[in-house]
Amino acid sequence: MFRRRHRRSPVDQIRNAFWPSIGWRRTAVYLGHRMARLKGSPHSIAVGFAYGAAVSFTPFVGLHLVSSAFLAWITRGNILAAWIGTLVGNPWTFPIIWVWTYQLGRIMGVGEHPNGDSPNFTALFGNMVKSLLQADFQYLQESAWPIFGAMLIGSIPTAIVAWIASYYVARGLLGGYKAARAARRKKTLAARGDRQARQTENTA
After folding, report:
1. pLDDT at residue 26 above 50?
2. Partner of 77 for a Cys bridge, out of 35, 48, 136, 165, CB 3.0 to 4.6 A?
3. What is the DSSP string of the chain?
4. What pLDDT, in 10s, does the model give residues 103-114?
């Protein structure tokens, strides 16, 4: 469904992640139409999208697709809609999300950063992956956890609010879209029936 006819080069994929070739507005409209045409009820699609959006606020970078699909699956939400929802987290929004969840976690009393400096989140995630591969649990406990833990705790209330907001917005938009589409289809069928009736009368 989402496969391109001509595969982009790695450079184009990176460039498109930061700035879509068709523009942000057209990209949003395109994804909205894609989601509206997914099979399933407005509820199941909205549930899937809400989990994708909510998971984007967690610091489990690299696991958003898997975790959103799992949550959508166990709640009978639409998995493809969940994947679309994860696009809430992107190269433009991640820095804002990370700062927000970290600061909120600090306010909630979790985590501590030396000298009060602002964390380098990109370096943090890179060092965490390296430490996991090297089984360097000392770094994870002493250096990574004070920052990652604050982000994790701060992401919980944020994800809950994001889920609720995303669900009701998506449910409302999908309900309106599907109702309008059903009305257009009904009108088209009625017009087709009138034409057939007139053709039958003319033939008779």
Report:
1. yes
2. 48
3. ----SSPPPHHHHHHHHHS-TT-HHHHHHHHHHHHHTSSS-HHHHHHHHHHHHHHTTSS-TT-HHHHHHHHHHHTT--HHHHHHHGGGS-TTTHHHHHHHHHHHHHHTT----GGGPPP-HHHHHHHHHHHHHTT-HHHIIIIIHHHHHHHHHHHHHHHHHHHHHHHHHHHHHHHHHHHHHHHHHHHHHHHHHHHHHHHHHHH-
4. 999 999 887 655
